[in-house]
Every structure is written in C-alpha cells, then in structure tokens.
Automatic annotation (TrEMBL):
The chain crosses the membrane at residues 12-32. Keywords: FAD, Flavoprotein, Membrane, Oxidoreductase, Transmembrane, Transmembrane helix. GO terms for cellular component: peroxisomal matrix. The lineage of its organism: Eukaryota, Metazoa, Spiralia, Lophotrochozoa, Mollusca. It is found in: Peroxisome matrix. This is FAD dependent oxidoreductase domain-containing protein. FAD binds at residues 53-54, 177. Its cofactor is FAD. Residues 16-332 form the FAD dependent oxidoreductase domain. GO terms for biological process: D-amino acid catabolic process. The keyword Transmembrane helix applies. InterPro entries: DAO, FAD-dep_OxRdtase.
Length: 346
C-alpha cells in the first residue's frame, strides 16, 4: 500500500498547477499542500485579490441544497459542514481579525414555509420566529428564522489564503492561460479553478453568468444580516454593509446600471428603513459562475502535445464562498488519486 508520505517521497518530479487565484483556486491550493506536502504547487492567474469575483462577494455562509442543482443532498451537506467547521474554527480563534471570519446573527424572511433548511443542523444557532416577533421587527413576511452563522469578509480572507499558500512554498505566476495544453509535460496534474472563464478555457458552455450587483453603504449601526426570498438583502462586512441584489441570468455586462442601483436601494430601504440614511460608498457588479451541477471532476484531456490529467473545480454560482472549502477538499482528493495513476498514452 502506498501512503501519502511515500507518494511524496517516491515522486519528486511531480508538480501540480492550479489555474485560478479566486477563493476556489486558493482553497484548493491549501488542501493540496496539506494532502501532498512535498509536491510543489504553482498557481497561474491573471486576476488577483480585488480583481476576482470572489473579492466582492457578500460572504454569507448560507448553505442550501436547492442552490446546488444536480448534486445529491448528502454531498451538499458534507461540503457545507466541512466549510462551516473550518470557518467557525477561524471565527472563534485569535486569527479571526486576519482571516475576516465573523460570527454574525441574522434573519431570513419568506412568504412560503421554509422546510428543513440545511442551516438548521449546521450553524451556531437556529430557530423559527413567531408571528409576534415578525411583527415586532416590522417586516411584511409570513415566515422567518433567526440564524447565527459566519460571514467571511473576503477582502481579508483572500490575502490570508494567498500568504499561507506562499509561506508553505507555493509559487504564483501572473499570466493568462490560453489553453491547458500549455501544461502538457510541465505539471503532473492541473486543477482548473478558473470559475466563469471555464467557458473559454475548457469550452464548457454549460457555465452561465448570473449577474449580481451590490451597493456598499457605511452603516456601522448594522451588526446583523437579513436575507429575503425576493432579492432584498444586506450583509455587514468589516467596514461597510453590502446591499443586494439582483440575479440576472445570461447578462454579461460588468457595467453599473443606475436602474439596478435604484431598485436595490428601494427594496432594501423598504425592507429595513434604518438603512435609508446610510451613505453609499461604492458599488460592485460581477458574474456568478453558475453550472448545474458545480463541476468537481477528474479527466484526462487529450491535446496535440499529449495527454494531461486535469481536475476541475468550478461553477459554484451564488455559493462560492459557502462551498469553496468543501469542494476544494474533494478536488484535492481527486488530485491525490490522479497523481498516483500512471499517465495514459493517448
Ligand atoms: C453579487 C455577488 C454576491 C455574492 N455573494 C455570495 C455570498 O454571500 N456567499 C457565497 O457563498 N457566494 C457569493 N457569491 C458567489 C461567489 O462570489 C462565487 O461563487 C465565487 O467567488 C467563485 O469563485 P472562483 O474562485 O470560482 O472564481 P473567481 O473569483 O472569479 O476566480 C477565478 C480565477 O481564475 C483566474 N482565471 C480564469 N481564467 C483564467 C485564464 N484563462 N488564465 C489565467 N487565469 C484565469 C482569474 O484570474 C481568477 O484568479 C456572490 C457573487 C456575486 C457576483
């Protein structure tokens, strides 16, 4: 039997390449470094930190089986549990101010009953709200629950992941990858964490954009988040509160549309009047990389230059922050499997 330790010793010429330095690429890199500590890992990306989709996300940990079409509920639960354990361990540790993990209470409101939410068994606390409590909060919804979960402040978490990766010997190359064929004969295994751009990089046209838009306001009196079923929500970060949102399928525009801004503000002010006087300090638009199902898969790709072992980890849609830690662990397991297999001759 070949143990990981032996694997690392016996395969000194192995190396792994990762395309992507968003939350998925960096989380995958961390798991690979844990599983295969002696195998060199290089991240290739042309966007880092604030230029990634990950950077601007609200960061709310909100697991939901319905958001992961095509993945069996047990797997979504396992990914979510894995992520919550990790994020909550950071949030309750002295590292929290560096990693950006905040234990944050909040409310979900809805006009349809919320059956068995995945939140229930996972987070710090969960309970249904009574109609009297909904009334006291002044909201016009029939159902609601109060949840204490973790918010990941991604502008802190991404640099922390990157620093960890580099401290552990990881290399970073700033360049655009035009084809994975560039890695044939260079890396033993390549992990594709290119998010939305997998459409072009591996020609996967089942990845589609769901355009999002957040309005950032200065509202230090807001210490909780609120999520509703009809596209009005807000999530506090370290220094600002993000108001959302929109979900525009197949819209590729990265421009700020003033009509969307007004709609978001109007819905949020109606939901939560205390936001009304909060000064707007910024706005952000990006594309959620949707795919049904999210792709966590190992394949040998064939190119003119030869075969290449590729593990895919992309298409996290509206759940990239929530699912990143769990899907990346599975991707790293596939990398360990791939690296042990002899290279196919095609
Ligand atoms: C408005 C909005 C709000 C959101 N809120 C939440 C939330 O509250 N909770 C939650 O869980 N999720 C949320 N999300 C979803 C989350 O942001 C995404 O699912 C996640 O960021 C996807 O991460 P990623 O690493 O796959 O992609 P990205 O962050 O886009 O990273 C992709 C990386 O791949 C690199 N890359 C791609 N192609 C190439 C190439 N050809 N050559 C070189 N480099 C390449 C890029 O340079 C980049 O480094 C939100 C998204 C939006 C838009």
């Amino acid at each position: 039997m070949l143990f990981k330790k032996d694997l690392n010793r016996k395969m000194p010429i192995s190396s792994i390449g990762i395309v992507g330095a968003g939350i998925v690429g960096l989380s995958t890199a961390m798991h690979i470094q844990r599983e295969l500590p002696r195998v060199p890992v290089t991240i290739y990306a042309d966007k880092f930190d604030r230029a990634t989709t990950s950077f601007g996300a609200g960061g709310l940990f909100r697991p939901n089986v319905d958001y992961c079409k095509g993945v069996d509920p047990e797997t979504v639960t396992r990914w979510s549990k894995d992520a919550f354990e990790f994020f909550s361990s950071l949030a309750t540790s002295p590292k929290a101010s560096d990693t950006g993990h905040m234990i944050t209470p909040g409310y979900v409101f809805s006009n349809t009953p919320i059956e068995n939410p995945l939140y229930k068994g996972l987070v710090f606390s969960f309970r249904d709200l009574t109609s009297a409590e909904l009334q006291k909060l002044g909201v016009d919804y029939k159902y609601g629950y109060q949840v204490t979960t973790v918010v990941t402040y991604v502008p802190k978490y991404l640099p922390w992941l990157m620093a960890k990766f580099q401290e552990q010997g990881g290399l970073v190359v700033n360049r655009t990858v035009n084809s994975l064929e560039e890695f044939v004969g260079v890396h033993s295994v390549v992990v594709n964490c290119s998010g939305f751009r997998s459409r072009d990089l591996v020609g996967d046209k089942t990845v589609y954009p769901v355009r999002g838009h957040l309005v950032r306001v200065k509202a230090p009196w807001i210490k909780y988040w609120v999520y509703t079923e009809d596209s009005a929500y807000f999530i506090p970060g370290f220094d600002e509160v993000s108001l959302g949102g929109i979900r525009q399928k197949d819209n590729y525009s990265l421009d700020i549309n003033p009509k969307d801004s007004e709609g978001i503000k109007e819905r949020c002010y109606k939901l939560w009047p205390s936001l009304k006087n909060a000064p707007v300090i910024g706005e952000w638009v990006d594309l959620r990389p949707h795919r049904d199902p999210v792709r966590i898969e190992y394949e040998t790709m064939k190119f003119d230059k030869g075969p290449l072992k590729v593990v895919h980890n992309y298409g996290h849609g509206a759940n990239g922050i929530t699912l990143s830690w769990g899907t990346s662990r599975d991707a790293a397991t596939l990398v360990s499997k791939a690296i042990m297999e002899p290279q196919a001759r095609l």
